[in-house]
Structures are given as structure tokens and as C-alpha cells.
Amino acid sequence: MEKETIWSVILKNHFPNSYLEIDLDAISKNLEAIKQRVPNKKVLAVVKCNAYSHGVVNVAKHIQEQVDWFAVANVDEAIELRRASITKPVLVFGVPTYETAAAYQTHNLTATVSHLTHFSILMDGTDYHLNFDTGMGRLGFSPEQVKEVRQQAVLNQRLTCSGIYSHYATADDPGSELVQKQADRFSDLIKQFEEIPLKHISNTGAATNYNTDHYDMIRTGLGLLGYNPGQTRHKWLKPALTWKSKVAQVRPVKRGDTVSYGATWRCPEDGYLATIPVGYGDGIPRSLSNKLQVSINGKLYSQVGNVTMDYIMVYLKGDKISTDADVTLLGGEALNAADWSELAGTNVHEILTNLKGRFEREYLNF
Ligand SMILES: *Cc1c(COP(=O)(O)O)cnc(C)c1O
């Protein structure tokens, strides 16, 4: 944590209601654990969407020496990395446009070519990876286009092709037939591109759940942050993020009282109610209403009533906890993002990227 100077105390004009504690050392260790699972492969760290809310600049700086590549979703995110003195290659997954073409060149970014028009859009000297759609149904050439893509790649010597990749749709699930199908399609089509140095297809799920060919490099986002996608949880990954807040108010609550919008919860027994100053505006899914538990002074308590934009309420039963008590909302002693995703019926990625609220980030092992 940065030391506060007397001036920053006097001039403080930022009073966050909660903070994210991000353990950079845990991220480094997750990386090493993943590398052990896929020995002798290069590693591309996927740090799109502000490193899934972990704060892209500090995360990328911390792991820069441990990884070979970075990837982000769009050019703006890539420029942010370059401005933060990240010098490793940066792959942009998104599509290049006439508007962004110059930025690839200026900032030395690697483009993704996933449509024939992209060959003409990119400027001389731009580095790129080819993207083939083997079953994801999102971006990329169809395997039937192999011949014309190869032709364009050969014709466009003004560009540099440094890689070819594809993306799995179902690698979260350890026994998926589609993964095998996509792997076969990829292994077939890359036969036409043997001279391309970097071939890659595996995301975190593929790298942790499958022993298929990972080719030259794996791409991991969620894994770095200590989670596996899908149902399988791996003990060797440690969540790096903990979300904390403080109790804003504690009040008595009487048997029969209802709490929050819609009055969906009725108090079963006289006791105390804590109000915590975080809500769906900060990233707590409203669908977790009456399902969530948070940790106060090391003990789990039930969140009750509907999650509101700025607050959640927690039933303390008979415990008269003091105002200002520390609350762990996510990670640490509380439920983690995998628990939240199961309760909310979504994936871990969405839980993490939704944390874009009104908090401060504090980095451990900076
Ligand atoms: C987001 C993304 C990844 C990373 O996925 P994780 O499940 O976080 O490992 C890899 N490749 C592509 C193309 C992506 O869009």
C-alpha cells in the first residue's frame, strides 16, 4: 500500500465505500502453477477488461517478466498497456478498422486478422495473427477459407504474420466433444501454415482441464487471477482478489419486519441488522438477493432482502456488531467469485468484470 503523506491526508477528496485488495504475489504464483501444468509452452496473459477488474496496469507490470505475450480486447486497452511501459508483444483480439489501423503501427501492437478485408486495412509493417473459427461462432475465418487466407497472407508481405490461433467454446467443461472437434479442425488447418511461428488455441479451461495439444502458447486470463472456469475447482489456483467494506450502520430489527425493496425478506426473530454501503451499482448481482453471505469479524452472515443499488443488508441475529466493523464481501473468509457465479447462475468472468464500482484498489506485494 502506498504511504499516505500529510498532504494527501489533508487534501483527500476520495472516500471510497469499499476496496479491492489484490494480491500480486498470488497472481505470480498462479502463473507459475499454470506453467508447471503446461511445461515448455509460452504464456500469453489475457488482461482485457482491466484485467477482469484487477487493475490492468499494476497486474501487467507485476507479471511482465513471467509472460511472453499480453492480449486485450481492443486497441484502447492495448494503448493503456504501452503507456504503462509494457514492452512485451500485445495481441489485440478485436477487429482492426480504418480508424484504428494507424494505432497498431504507432504502438507496435499485434492485430488479429479474422476477415479478408483486414489484410488491406492494416498499415505496412503491422504484425498480425490469423484467427480461425473452429467452432466458437464469434470471430475468425472459416476453415473452408484456408486457401484464400493463405493466398492473401503470401501476397501481403508488407505485413508480418507472427501467429495463428483459434478459440474454444466449451473448454470450461472437462469432457466436451466440441473441444475435441475444434482441436481436430485446428490441427488440420495449421498444416497449411507450418511456417507461422506461434500457434495457439488453449484458454484457461483448455490448459487446466485438457491434455490436448496446447501448441506453442496458452492464453490465460481467469487462471492468473486464481480461478478455473466452469464447475471444476483446482486447489492449486488461489484467488487474488478480496473485496472489503465496512458496516455503515447497525440497527435493531423486530420479528415480522420486512427488509428492502419488494419486502422479500421477513425477520424471523428480534435481532440486529447491518447495512453495508455496496450494492448492484458496485457489482453485486441483484440476482444474489437473499442468497449471498458476507463475513463480518470472521463469521458468515446472511444478506437479506433485495440487493439495492448502493446497499445490502445483513441479518446479524443476536450479534450486536459495532458500526465500522470490517466486512469481507468476496474472497478471503467470504464466498469467492466461483461461489457467487454458481449462486447467480453466471460465470466467474462476469462476476469479476462486473466489479467496476466505486472502490479503491490496494495492492499487496506491490
Ligand atoms: C478472453 C479470452 C481468453 C481468456 O479466457 P480465460 O477463460 O480467461 O482464460 C483467451 N482467448 C480469447 C480469444 C479470449 O477472448
From TrEMBL:
The keyword Isomerase applies. It catalyses: L-alanine = D-alanine. Residues 240-364 form the Alanine racemase C-terminal domain. Its cofactor is pyridoxal 5'-phosphate. GO terms for molecular function: alanine racemase activity; pyridoxal phosphate binding. SUPFAM superfamilies: Alanine racemase C-terminal domain-like, PLP-binding barrel. The active site is at K48 (proton acceptor), Y261 (proton acceptor). CDD domains: PLPDE_III_AR. GO terms for biological process: D-alanine biosynthetic process. Pathway: Amino-acid biosynthesis; D-alanine biosynthesis; D-alanine from L-alanine: step 1/1. Keywords: Isomerase, Pyridoxal phosphate. Substrate binds at R138, M309. The modification N6-(pyridoxal phosphate)lysine is found at K48. Its EC number is 5.1.1.1. The keyword Isomerase applies. It comes from the Bacteria. Belongs to the alanine racemase family. Catalyzes the interconversion of L-alanine and D-alanine. May also act on other amino acids. This is Alanine racemase. The lineage of its organism: Bacteria, Pseudomonadati, Balneolota, Balneolia, Balneolales. The gene is alr.
